[in-house]
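Minutes, project check-in
Item: structure for the 196-residue chain
Input as provided by the requester:
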Amino acid sequence: MESIKGVSGMKNSGNIDQLLADSFKELAQTVPIEKITIKQITDKAGVIRPTFYNHFQDKYELLEWILRTEVIEPVKPLLRHHYLDEAMEMMFTNLYNNKNFYEHAVRLGGQNSFDSIVNACMYELVSDYMEQTPIRTSTKYKWLTKERIVDYYSRSLCMFLLEWIRTGMDTVSPKELAEIYHVLISSTMTDIQDVL
């Protein structure tokens, strides 16, 4: 029964998801994310409120969907083939292509902060990557579990990504940022000086 703003022609839920995401992203340009209401999102998208709840629990789940769809999912095929550097460059490029939105999103704090959403997504991404390269349990260092390794790399990637957004994404290109990330993860603290 949904025919507002041409939505009746949409054939699958992906189109509605994207319509709601576009509406949310547009609103975020002028309204702090924490103040955006579901009604504002659906009004701008031209759909009725129940439509939103058929697709997302709340605006934070929508924000996570945007991040996963635009940034996380596109890099997974590269990671499956162990193209880590290319995956990082693509991830940073995809963020940069929507920098106005992410520069607003990074300001979202509180219980459903952007930081926590990014952290969860990065943990999943690193975990998926590590599944491609199985890590055997250390016999020498029992404390060094697979979960701690994933946590270490996902937190460092999360911090790296969030810091870039917070300090202005124009300060360094996505390609250079991917190169810097490669240097950091492939160097020890003692030999990082030699790299610089």
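Outcome recorded: The chain has eleven helices and no strands.
No further action items on this chain.
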